[in-house]
UniProtKB/TrEMBL annotation:
Domain of life from the UniProt record: Bacteria
Stated family: Belongs to the universal stress protein A family.
Protein name per UniProt: Universal stress protein UspA
Boundaries of every UspA domain copy: 3-142
Length: 145
């Protein structure tokens, strides 16, 4: 069976990306391994007293993200596609590549918003970074308005 890694960020285009991954998984008889990489600084805030850490904020955010991952997994499974999910904190590119290696992935499926040029200079692009670093083929699904 073809192993597909599907990183999600719960942005406004996540549903379109999942639709594309479902279609691809059906075409290649694949299973989807959902992954969400949360930033390590979720519970930090800066105020009058400098940086402060609020573990309850981080716990609530992680809990909500797990709920969202479960919903996406259920949606994928409802299309008769095997699926599992993982949530980790850290540097997205490194964690996704490690996960792909651990799952013997055949593909990483990413979305592209079609931005380029100055946007990439200032913000960067996880998709662009993965396509440069991955030994696994990266399938880029165009996500447009």
């Amino acid at each position: 069976m073809i192993n597909i890694i599907l990183p999600v960020d719960f942005g406004d285009k996540t549903e379109q990306l999942v639709d594309g991954a479902i279609k691809f998984a059906k075409e290649v008889n694949g299973r989807i391994n959902l992954i969400h990489v949360a930033p390590t600084d979720i519970g930090f805030a800066i105020g009058d007293m400098g940086f402060q850490y609020f573990p309850e904020v981080e716990e609530n955010e992680i809990r909500e993200e797990l709920v969202q991952l479960n919903k996406l997994e259920q949606r994928i499974v409802s299309h008769y596609i095997e699926c599992e999910h993982l949530l980790k904190q850290g540097i997205a590119k490194d964690i996704i590549l490690d996960y792909a290696s651990s799952k013997n992935a055949n593909y990483i499926v990413m979305g592209s918003h079609g931005r380029s040029g100055i946007y990439d200079v200032f913000v960067g692009s996880l998709t662009k970074s993965l396509t440069k670093s991955s030994t696994v083929p990266v399938l880029v699904i165009p996500i447009h308005e």
